[in-house]
Amino acid sequence: MTALADRALVLRAWDFSETSQTVSLFTRHHGALRGLAKGARREKSTFGGGFEPLTIGEVSFRLRATSELALLTEWKVTDIFWGPRTSLTAHRAAWYAAELLGAFITDRDPHPHLFDAADVFLRQLDRAESVPEALARLQWAVLLETGHRPRIEAEAPAAQPSDVLGFDPEAGALAPDPGPRAPAEGPVWRIRRETIEILRSLDAALPLDRATPPAVSRANRFLATWCRYLLGTELQTFRIVFG
Fold first, then answer.
1. Alpha-carbon Rg for the chain in angstroms
2. Does the pLDDT at position 55 exceed 70?
3. Which one, of 12, 3, 180, lies nearest residue 74 by Cα?
4. Which residues are CB-neighbours of 156 under 8 A, at least 6 positions away?
5. Rounded Cα gap, residues 29 and 33, in angstroms
6. Within 76-234, where are the H helices?
7. Residue 197: is it exposed, middle or buried by C-beta count within 10 angstroms (0-12/13-18/19+)?
8. pLDDT higher for 243 or 236?
């Protein structure tokens, strides 16, 4: 087994025994990684006291042909993020982000830009007022990096400009407004033009300083709903964050 090393974000950790852990990691150059850390919880080990979710560090591991679990051999924490540990809003957003990343990334499929975006996201949670925009940017990064970016450029011709547009989730693109009587879970969703403009700003990496908090909240909910549609299931943290 060849020894490998990478930078990793801990998404989840489970006690495997009194002294060992199994962990789910998002690594920068190897994508998703599930591993077994034998003796991780011992005071004197190569794991620095064990793996704690929502921390970033340097991990060494060996891939095993006979097991889906990598054998983790060393772990050193380099970054602990205090926002999720001191603010309930940041805590909920961080756990939703961890679950979202775990749902979209796959083994041996690296997304270094998404890893960097997750790093930036966690750092921005130190300020409560930054949480909504940070979450919107991370959700957009997940969709962009995994090939699920909604197509928000072209609009269907309309007789008169409207403040409400449609979004066809099956096509992943804008569509004509289905009207106020359309069911909320219908084949075409209604979406405010204001929300589309926020998504376009995210796509262009522009600041959202002109967007109101309610507008950013609606953009976050749209992105989360689109992620739910793509996954075909609702993440456990969805309603905790979005109600």
1. 20
2. yes
3. 3
4. 166, 174, 175, 176
5. 10
6. 83-86, 88-104, 112-124, 131-145, 193-203, 213-231
7. middle
8. 236
The pair of structure tokens assigned to 200 is 């376009």
**Confidence class of residue 62 from pLDDT cuts 50, 70 and 90?**
very high
Q: What pTM did the predictor assign? A: 0.94
Distance separating alpha carbons of residues 143 and 115, to the nearest angstrom = 13
pLDDT given at position 157: 61
185: tokens are 């879970």
Phi-psi group of 186: left, alpha or beta (phi > 0 → left; psi -120 to 50 → alpha; rest → beta):
beta
For 128-164, the pLDDT digits (tens) are 999 999 999 999 999 999 999 999 997 766 655 689 9
- Residue 152: exposed, middle, or buried by beta-carbon count in 10 A (0-12, 13-18, 19+)? buried
Structure tokens at 54: 């929502």
